[in-house]
Amino acid sequence: MTKITAQNISKICGDKLSEKMPDAYASSRLQKELDYIEKNEAYAEVFAIASELVSYSRELGYYTGFHGCIGSSLIAFLLGITEIDPLKYNLPVEVFMGIHNDKPLDIELMFDMQFLPMAKRYVQENHPNIAIIDRGNHPTWLIFQGNATSLNIDKFDRKNTVKLSFWGSQYYTVLKELSDMTGVDIFSIPFDDKQTIELLKTANIELDDEEPDELKLWHRSLTRLVNPKTFEELVQTTGWVYSTYRCAQKDIPNMPAFRDEIFLDLLHSGINSVAAYEIMECVRKGKGLTEEYTSMLSNAGISEQYMDSLNQVQYLFPKAHCIALAMTEYRTAWFKAYYPEEFQKVMKW
Questions:
Q1: N or C: which end of the chain has fewer CB within 10 A?
Q2: Which residues share a beta bridge with 315?
Q3: In whole angstroms, what is the distance from residue 239 CA to residue 223 CA?
Q4: What is the pLDDT along the chain (349 residues), one digit of tens a residue?
Q5: 3-state secondary structure 210-247
Q6: Distances (CA, A) of 185 to 137, 175, 189, 231
Q7: What is the torsional sign of CA 11, 16, 21, 22?
Q8: Residue pair 178/339 in contact by the 8 Å Cβ criterion
Q9: Radius of gyration (Cα) for the chain, nearest Å?
Q10: In this structure, how many other beta carbons lie within 10 angstroms of the beta carbon of residue 80?
Q11: What are φ and ψ of residue 109, in 5° steps?
């Protein structure tokens, strides 16, 4: 693999884009992200380190994932940091870098528990200039903040700090163990298997105490209510499961499942992009609609039912985050469906 640097990130991504999706829209999307990265000299280094870590992890046979909105980045896809193509899933770039291209870069990677100490050691040995803050049972944070000599994890400037963090998760450990036991490459598992989707309607994956009991029960009941039949519907269900709506369960399927969905819905209704983004941010933080926003949406023909749903949101994940969660859960359930004996050896159901 060609080593990624601030100087060659544009060429590497451009070459890969030409191989995968050589069209004008994709090129325009890539240039937007490159312009965003070039605004801060540390951004390219963060992407480079993230790409190196994921590549190193996979070379050793460990599965990797991510949290947050980095899955909305085309550059992250082209560099192999995520396996999610944002163009395929119609993930707006604004969720990743902000409406004014000024959202601080924040990459959260998910690793096998066994690989986590290797990741820390890799960064220490290969990037000694990077400030590493190990938070014990919490994720390790690699902090980039200009020419800083010392950082306080509780007081650092979040707005102007670039952060790369990585977590360990039992899900990824389990997937590696299942892959090793069965010889199945997890990236070869199809996402259109009906038996796996049916299995996910009747049970959800429980890894020790990783999820509280009330969330497990909510997950099961909402999945049965929505009754997803495709992977895309499973992703949408995941969005509702991890959202926090102040409403009855039966009303959830009529509401937006992701923060991106709000942004795109408003754009399609004629709301300008800046207002659509600001409303999305206000709503997903649980602040509801202001009188000004309510009037704006009403004048644009947005239904009262839709506006009421926006007022009931307390938190919404980005769609990329939900895709990653659904992919991990689906792959684990696939092993339960087709390799039940091996599955029972490595985890609880």
A1: N
A2: 244
A3: 11
A4: 557 766 788 899 999 898 877 788 899 999 999 999 888 777 888 899 999 999 999 999 998 999 999 999 999 999 999 999 999 999 999 999 999 998 888 899 999 988 988 988 898 898 887 777 776 655 666 666 544 374 444 445 555 567 788 888 888 999 999 999 999 999 999 999 999 999 988 765 554 445 666 777 788 888 888 899 999 999 999 999 989 998 888 999 999 999 999 999 999 999 999 999 999 999 988 999 999 999 999 999 999 999 999 999 999 999 999 999 999 999 999 999 999 999 999 876 4
A5: CCCHHHHHHHHHHHHHHCCCCHHHHHHHHHHHHCEECC
A6: 30, 10, 7, 19
A7: positive
A8: yes
A9: 21
A10: 17
A11: -105, 150
Hey, what are 286's tokens?
């649980």
pLDDT digits (tens, 9 = 90+) for 329-344: 999 999 999 999 999 9
Q: Are the beta carbons of 325 and 295 closer than 8 angstroms?
A: no
Q: Residue 71 to residues 83, 172, 185, 342: CA-CA distances in angstroms?
A: 8, 17, 22, 31
Q: Identify the structural domains of the chain with CATH numbers, from first to last.
A: 9-173 (3.30.460), 189-243+318-346 (1.10.150.700), 259-315 (no CATH)
**Cβ contacts of 94 within 8 Å, gap of 6 or more:** 263, 273, 277
Here the tokens at position 75 are 């550059």
What is the total residue count of the chain?
A: 349
**How far is 270 from 309, CA to CA, in rounded Å?**
19
Contact 244, 315 (CB under 8 A): yes
Pair type for strands 106-112 and 162-169: parallel
* DSSP designation for 246: S
Q: Find the largest Cα–Cα distance for the chain.
A: 59
